[in-house]
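Lay summary. Proteins are chains of building blocks that fold into shapes, and those shapes determine what they do. In this project we predict the shape from the chain. Here is one chain we studied, written as its sequence of building blocks.
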Amino acid sequence: MDYLLLILGLVILTVGADLLTKGCVGMAARFRVPEFIVGLTVMAVGTSMPEFTVSAMSALRGSTDMAIGNVTGSNIFNILIILGICAVVRPMVFTRENIRRDIPICIAASVLLLVLALYVGQPLGIGRWEGALMLALYIAVIWYSIRSAKRDIPDQEAGTTDGKESEVTMAWGRVIIYIIVGLAGLIFGGNMCLESATAIARAWGVSEAVIAITIVAAGTSLPELASSLSAVVSGKLSLALGNIIGSNVANILLILGTSGLIKPLTMGGITTLDIWMVLGVAVVLLLSAIAIGQRRITRAEGVVYLAIYVGYVLLLMK
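And here is the predicted shape, written in a compact code that computers can read:
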């Protein structure tokens, strides 16, 4: 039954992702804002709802391994698996603003997590004041990103494959219905996949910390995977990049911030390697964009990303 529920959840995710992508593209056209910003805000927060639900409920129940491991694992999964798969499907093109502003913000959020979780306070983890700081910084990041992106609309649109504004102006009612139904499908399908995959993993005898970083993180990241792939297939590369980068920032600042406010989080079974890995993959993304692919992630780099993730999971299993 768990395997059947996993397949059904994936189908629901696929349908939800397609509807959400269409709704977000329609919203970008209606507001005349860059698709990247829609991906960074509406789409990123929406597809991060499974992570938010799991981490917040884990904090309430005192399961700190699940709360922190879900976020760290999701951020690693987002870059190495989702961006890797997207790049294999179609090379991902970065704008100057992605390299100068958006990826550095993701790196800064990862550095903050590293410092607060490993080197500030006792016991190590995320306390209430750290959570409040993270939430305040998230609001500031979104405000800054929107303001600066509105000045850079021509270059932001370079992230699409055709360089044109969305060709279809969708009716407002349709936009809202697509976004709401799409998000509902992503959350419901993601939870279905999460519960079935977790049951399968526990049947295999895997520890809670490893389950949180791998199975749970992958399950809650399925909405990002489905929506990003849908955006890439549709030629909306800016939307996919905004979703991935925005989700990583939201995972750290918004989700861990909220979870830390609900109840202080301790490291539990989450290791120093796991936290450093979050920062490492963000740095790899920047280096890949500026030094290797020349403002793009090629298909070969996408394969390397996937291989790194496999190596990391194998290391965890040991």
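What the prediction tells us: Residues 172-203 form the longest helix (32 residues).
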